[in-house]
Write a sequence for this structure.
């Protein structure tokens, strides 16, 4: 029967995984590295929307998402705020989204305009930073303390993972060989590991982007889409399994799986930390 | 409102096959929360991404959700491949276009329905000098560009025999060679 306030359910304290599925953004709490599956719940009901990318701002405790039915970017406070659109025009197929929690900006990919854009978190001060050599840009990740941006393009003829400074300058290709459909991408600042999940090669791989020491973590992954990182684990959503899968990066093993009751594709995935990573800001780095 | 104390306080959810629902307090709007497989929306009236139909028959007869029908000219790794209600294809590839990705994009010609992607739609590549108004589109089927007077070939790139000066931009001019002094 009816429950109170179904549009917004405040998140309890702690770290959560946020994922998009069929007109909803849901959350599953993490206890240590374990997904507390029985406590998984809807965070936001967006019944007419197809949500693709999800990102989290640890400062204002807001969730951001991209949506393709009325192409837009919106946000809501995870403690019970109303969904509010922040980008609504000149956007065709927004997919990946990431937050620079230090610079207070967001970055997103648009797979029809084939570009990467940046804007303030309220949608103002918008700027295109990359608009060349993109075919199917999807995942995008910021590393604010070090000032880098990473993104993946699943172009079937020439898939690649690229990096640049956060203004789009100093762009270079990090990975282009032995890639298929690199849908998922995530970066762990503590271990300086960039990891990706590939729905074409069915591999999960990681590298230190500065060193270029690429290594395989796991093979036999089925159809990864979104990806997030938390400590030693990476998590990805899988289109074939309709699940969130946890992988221990160091053991190179799948450690857990959460399959929501609703059997349909899961899209974007983000980790909502209880607080921003400490001791990491521009001042600490300089 | 179960606090009213009458037997009519609770109403059954306006959702298909026993899906649960909830009320948005601000708007008093009822939203289904557990739609049948493949459907979504406030009343489970929409299809999931990658599918189209009218599962509740809101616009006419019931049309169950089916996978986007785009002539094999979409990529299954893409999102938003077709409109969830009408089925209109939104992300045609291989230079195809149209409601079902069933024709070539403007500026391309060939058979959008060919099995092999390399046989599908090729660029018209009309010669800018030999084509009327420097058009970039050509016949969908033959690929023939619209040539200026006395210009030949599919792409309007050469003068007809006995004509010269394609680069004039007005078509080719007659050579006017003296038949006695010319070799052929």
């Amino acid at each position: 029967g009816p429950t109170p306030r179904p549009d917004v359910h405040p998140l309890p304290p702690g770290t959560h995984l946020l994922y998009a599925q069929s007109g909803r953004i849901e959350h599953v709490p993490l206890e240590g590295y374990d997904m507390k599956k029985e406590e998984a719940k809807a965070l936001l009901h967006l019944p007419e929307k197809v949500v693709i990318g999800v990102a989290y701002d640890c400062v204002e405790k807001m969730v951001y998402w991209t949506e393709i039915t009325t192409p837009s970017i919106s946000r809501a406070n995870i403690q019970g705020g109303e969904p509010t659109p922040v980008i609504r025009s000149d956007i065709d197929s927004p997919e990946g989204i990431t937050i620079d929690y230090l610079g207070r900006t967001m970055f997103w990919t648009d797979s029809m305009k084939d570009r990467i854009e940046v804007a303030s978190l309220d949608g103002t001060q918008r700027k295109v930073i990359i608009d060349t050599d993109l075919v199917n840009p999807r995942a995008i990740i910021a590393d604010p303390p070090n000032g880098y941006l990473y993104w993946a393009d699943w172009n079937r003829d020439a898939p690649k993972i690229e990096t640049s400074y956060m203004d789009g300058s100093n762009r270079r290709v990090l990975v282009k060989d032995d890639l298929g459909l690199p849908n998922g991408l995530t970066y762990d600042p503590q271990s300086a590991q960039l990891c990706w999940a590939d729905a074409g090669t069915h591999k999960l791989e990681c590298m230190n982007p500065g060193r270029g020491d690429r290594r395989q973590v796991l093979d036999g992954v089925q159809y990864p889409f979104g990806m997030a990182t938390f400590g030693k684990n990476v998590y990805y959503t899988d289109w074939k399994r309709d699940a969130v899968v946890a992988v221990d990066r160091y053991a190179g093993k799948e450690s857990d799986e959460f399959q929501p009751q609703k059997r349909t594709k899961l899209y974007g995935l983000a980790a909502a930390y209880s607080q921003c990573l400490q001791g990491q800001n521009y001042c600490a780095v300089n | 409102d179960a606090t009213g104390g009458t037997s009519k306080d609770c109403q059954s959810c306006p959702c298909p096959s026993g899906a649960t629902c909830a009320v948005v307090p601000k708007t008093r709007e009822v939203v289904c929360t557990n739609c049948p497989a493949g459907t979504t929306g406030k009343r489970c009236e929409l299809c999931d991404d990658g599918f189209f139909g009218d599962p509740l028959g809101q616009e006419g007869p019931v049309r169950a959700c089916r996978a986007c029908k785009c002539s094999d000219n979409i990529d299954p790794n893409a999102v938003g491949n077709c409109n969830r209600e009408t089925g209109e294809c939104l992300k045609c590839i291989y230079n195809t276009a149209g409601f079902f990705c069933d024709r070539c994009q403007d500026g391309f010609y060939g058979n959008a329905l060919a099995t092999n992607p390399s046989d599908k739609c090729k660029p018209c590549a009309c010669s800018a000098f030999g084509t009327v108004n420097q058009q970039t589109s050509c016949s969908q089927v033959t690929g023939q560009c619209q040539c200026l007077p006395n210009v030949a070939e599919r792409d309007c790139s050469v003068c007809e025999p006995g004509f010269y000066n394609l680069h004039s931009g007005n078509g080719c001019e007659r050579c006017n060679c003296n038949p006695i002094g010319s070799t052929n």
